[in-house]
Design goal:
Layout: H1 17-28, H2 31-50, H3 57-61, H4 63-68, H5 80-96, H6 99-107, H7 113-126, H8 135-141, H9 148-157, H10 164-169, E1 172-174, E2 180-182, H11 190-221, H12 224-235, H13 242-253, H14 258-266, H15 279-302, H16 308-315, H17 320-331, H18 333-348, H19 352-357, H20 365-374, H21 379-409
Antiparallel strand pairs: 1-2
Amino acid sequence: MRDRGLVGPAPFAGRPWWTRALHLGSAYLALPLVAFLLAVFLLPIFSFLLQSVLSTEVRDGFPRVSAAIRDWRPGTPPSAALSDALVADLQESERNQTVGKVAKRLNQEVTGFRSLILKTSKRLEQRDPAAPSGMSALLAIDPRWGEDAYWRALRRAAPAVTDRYLLAALDLERNNADAVVPVPRSEALYLDVLGRTVAVSAVVTACCLVLGYPIAFLLAQLPRRQSRWLALFVLLPFWTSLLVRSTAWLVLLQREGLINDALVWSGLTSHRLELVHNRTGVLIAMVHVLLPFMILPIFAVMKRVPDQQLAAAASLGGGPVLAFRKVYFPQTLPGVGSGCAFVFILALGYYITPALVGGGNDQMISYFIANFVNETVNWGMASALSMVLLALVLFLFAVSHRTLLQSTAR
């Protein structure tokens, strides 16, 4: 039974009624902001992510086939009703000019299905009304209609809800028995890209931590006037466009750029280095762009650590290294965790910098999402890759938050 002595008084106990009305009124003032965020932020993201499980092209373009093919058993010849439904849908979609969308979707299931659909619809439009219909008409146009693989593809693509895109984003697919299996190694791509994205983000985060922690410590220890000037240089990159900063690194790191000129002139190297269009250039440019996001959270935590603690540790016999390791550093872990999470999550979604400075083997997952949206117009795959990236970010955020809470509890 709950101890009633631990339950505090009601929030508005003993207060006049108008106090509650004012409190509720202030809460209602936030409703327009909530509605605005819901309309312009959450709903568009939700509708975009929903495309990863939706596939309505075949259902809308071939409604008769979508209904009839549910009763068809793979491995058996298509029934007369099913073949007649396909002929009717092909003729109607040709008249409505929607056959192209259906053909494009079916070509994702079986390569060459698009040409088969377009060829069949054209021939059916031109055929003699007295000619045979149904399966005989389809086989007369192209014998591929007698192959089981094309009818299986129609059956897989007919439902409006599909897991095809999410499976493809994880290098998986369904075989002819509808079992989930890995794609052939020669066709596997996205897990490698996802691993590359995580690896690059982790290296960038580690470099930012190694470079950013001493800078944040210097900012926290300097007098206020000098600290402000140094902080100005830390914030300076925020005043420049990301595209401009990435392009600047492209100029500096190229074979005939200033950095190679300086290295050759100083004698540090006898030949010019390849610093651009490879992983080295991507890491240098991303670390430069993301370094302030590591410095600022750590600096904010360091400013709250009292200076007297290090002096007290020294008075108790602790040397500078021991005092830093036992007293100072544990108190800065919340800033380190926040900075690492911030940099890592931002790096996961980077697109412009790897696209400009990196090579073909350095593109991250955001490049493929943009390519599916802008080039191939495959919203399903773009949404599925975004869903995988979002799930990865949420998982890493939960892990880092839990780890941070455990470290601060100690």
